[in-house]
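DM from R.C. (forwarded with permission)

"hey, sorry to bug you on a friday — could you get me a structure for this? deadline for the figure draft is monday and I only need the backbone to look sensible"
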Amino acid sequence: MINNKVSKAVRLAIAFGAASTAAFSASSFAAEEENVEKVERIEVTGSRILREGAISPSPVTVITGEDLVSTGAMNIGEVLNKLPALATTYSLANSGRFIGTAGISLLDLRGMGSARTLVLVDGKRHVASSPGTSSVDTNTIPSSWIEKVEIITGGASAVYGADAVTGVVNFILKKDVTGFNVSATKGFADNSSYQNEKFTVSYGQDFAEGRGNAAFSLEYNAQDSLNALDNPWTATSYASMPYEAVTGQSRPDDQIDSEEYPDRIVVPNAGYYLISNQGTVWNPFTGGIMGKFNGDSTLGDVYTGPIADGSFCGSPGCDYINLRQYSEIQPKFDRINFNFKTNYDVTDELNAYFQAKYSKTEGENVGQPFFRFYSGANLIQRDNAFLTPDVAQLMDDNELPFIGVNKMFNDIGRRLEENTRETTRFVAGIQGYISDDWAMDISLVHGKSEIERINGANVIMDNYANAIDAVFDDNNNIVCRDAAARADGCVAANIMGDGAISQEAIDYVTTTSIGTSEIKQTVFNATFSNSAIYELPAGMVGFAGGVEYRDETSVTIEDAFAKTGATFFNALGETDGGYDVTEAFFELSVPLIEDVFLIDTLVFDTAVRYADYSTIGDATSWKLGLDWTITPELRARFTLSEAMRAPNIDELFSGQSQSFAGVDDSCKVSELAQLSDAGRAIRESNCAALGVPADFDSNYDSATLETLVGGNPDLQPEESRSITAGLVYQPEWLEGFSVTADYWEIDIDDTISGIGFQTIIDRCVDSPTGIDNQFCKLITRDPNTSEITLLKGFALNIARSLNSGVDFEFGYDFDALGGSFGTSFIGTYLIEAKDFPFSAEPENYTDYEGVLGDETWQGSISVDYTYENLVLDFSTRFINGVELYDHKSIETNPNPSNQMRYGSYFITDASVAYKFDSGVGFKLGVDNLFNRGLPGSTTGTGAGSAIYDNIGRFAYLQATYKF
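My reply, with the result:
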């Protein structure tokens, strides 16, 4: 078959592979025999991440398909997120942080945003799984067919088009699949009842005397949900409380900024006492706590003890609520993936191919129930029919016409979100040679993702208000007070006590809301290449070029009732948008010098891509590179590129949506006290101008505040400038050893970003020119209470991000003890991770280097030993200690908490595998072998903290059969 001919495979891989500009180096094409030797070397050493990076002209990290599937991890995204270059922005542990994302697995290179990482399959685009974006869910990729994954650092838009701002992750599938392969994996956690399972079946064979190949695969993955209370690491409730409240002592005046005397102390077995599942009663006129309902709706006391601060209590036996009961640290998840592929040599030089897939994933997020916290709409009137005599008497004694109730409505049920994603994708094309030197690849890709989001236990606010206003009718029956509501079927509800509400009332006040999305993508690409278009003294000039047309649409339709704002669920805006883009591109590789002192070869690479968008108009990306082979043992490589990212559909066209944000009202007395005299004077003046009283210190912002966000059709593209410079050393005197070191820098300007809501508040009240500014206009305050009631925000091209670091890779393979050893180390040192909220203010930035989510050092070391059919594997991942507060905030307040940082973190995995000559194989593995716990008080479910394992020691058994 054409695709099994080594020499042509080399040329095709060069023309269309992930590092295509490598194609045309003189050293790669000195002789066909030399090419064959190099390809064979790649295949032999492909399981070593390092080797591929060592021979690439650009920084590339490679992980084999076998390494991806032979672990206890639930999916390939979980494995890739362990690499230092990828951030755990969307892992299974933290995917439920946002509406509609539970179970999704998105990749985020350098932690600069999943929208800036381009994910390809065989060098071709893949339909997105996240509405309004180009982000690809790795769950849709057939893991059993992955040959390798290449991770390319730096802007690559000149080669691949928009979105490759921080780099590319290219999943390369096996060309031909032959034989029958089946695999079954079952895993069990040591700390809890958590389990997962994976099953794969793949079959392929040649036909037409070897001219064609056809194959199919079927994969199934599933895991249980894991509640925080079911893992001892995450079951404890914590509260951050003032130093004085915890210790009972004031801080020495000369130690106010000392870490030994922090502002707040993180206290275990502590939490809110102001709210409960039973219902905590408060006086609407004083705000004071009056008690907590018992199961029979009578009122009991709320014990806080001596360690309390007005919101939290941490005394032994105090009546706090453990909100971690409402946290799932692993979601319920299942996935089924069916794939078919075939290719056929229509001539000796041309190969036609076709691929089809169907993928379905279901992710479940179970969150907090409906709650009311100091809400003026959650009042119980004196004549409420469910009042017990003791509560009624208490109201009379205090002359209260009504009482307030703070409650987590666990008895109504936790809010359940079920996300179902169905993806279909078809690829058809023809590739090969149209002459001795000219190769082509012409393809058509069409994909569609259909997403359904079901939100259960969603409270209908008007029904709820009518239901809790319960009175006796003339027949002494308990009914809803409002006659119109009664006529519409209102059922009176007793909220005084956990479980006091009837099922009939629950059915009346709740509904299920359904939102749907549909994403479509069509891509036509034609690429032509010639690796020897012109001969120079130093070798052959190579060329690749072509055209691409892409059409993207995304439509999101929200539940007709919920989007009116009539329910507790966010009133989300709808999206209906799309764009198309026509692109032309070319690449050149020019050998400049060869066979002179200290220059074995010197090759110049360049690429340019021109794009015409229906939304933003013209855009151009480019790349320059030098590949310098100093000696046969030592190489240097350099790239300079400018990449772009066009605003996606969601950023351009999304409707205004209700959301919520955790912020601090900067006008509170407690916030003012943390400022310098000069800063405090400015803020006090501006707060007063906003009508905020000087003694304002409400704790209303301990709950999240309502926000309104939406798209902006006037957005322009982001632009990035990337630099890479590296060395590759493969000594002849130590066979099997290689080392690479690559410096990288990614500077993204005009970053599309929403202004942080805390930034909006601070910029409003800290402006030296007063409150007549754009930020104050985004804030709405209640004229009576001065509390913030609404914050508005939308995306703008205002920000800038600058990250740089050094990647290291070492590898050494050698024979010993009768078998062979393979060793590797891959690590990243982060130099800077600067975030500029306003690109026009270069001195105003926060450097997150060393802060959780942007670790200074990350690395992993692995050692495997193979003896005949036995394979032993041992690997350790390392994360150095991280700060929990960024450097800028520490300059303002050097000791906000006693929990300032997490220490260094090591986690070790081990496995033993044996493959019988019959084709049967078994593998026993243990992830987190030493049961390394979570640091501090984290649950491992945040954007940054998901880098830590929250399952614990996890053993799995894998059985395989191949023939």
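R.C.: lifesaver. Residues 32-44 form the longest helix (13 residues).
me: no worries. Confidence is low (pLDDT under 50) at residues 1-54.
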